[in-house]
């Protein structure tokens, strides 16, 4: 994807049938922020933001 604020690289973790869809769950292996901004993050029914891990 071009012109993105951030990206996540995930490893396959699990998948499950949900109605007539297949839900794929990934384990985040790498995350990177490319430029200043407010990347959109949606997790557990809420919107949030990315923060640097304190060890990095």
UniProtKB/TrEMBL annotation:
Parts forming coiled coils: none
Domain of life: Bacteria
Name under which the protein is recorded: Flavin reductase
Organism listed in the record: Nonomuraea terrae
Domain called Flavin reductase like: residue spans: 1-49
Molecular function GO labels: FMN binding; oxidoreductase activity, acting on the CH-NH group of donors, NAD or NADP as acceptor
InterPro entries found in the cross-reference section: Flavin_Rdtase-like_dom (IPR002563), Split_barrel_FMN-bd (IPR012349)
């Amino acid at each position: 994807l071009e012109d993105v604020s951030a990206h996540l690289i995930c490893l396959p973790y699990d998948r499950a049938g949900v109605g007539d869809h297949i839900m794929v769950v990934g384990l985040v292996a790498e995350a990177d922020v490319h430029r200043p901004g407010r990347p959109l993050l949606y997790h557990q029914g809420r919107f949030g933001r990315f923060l640097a891990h304190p060890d990095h």
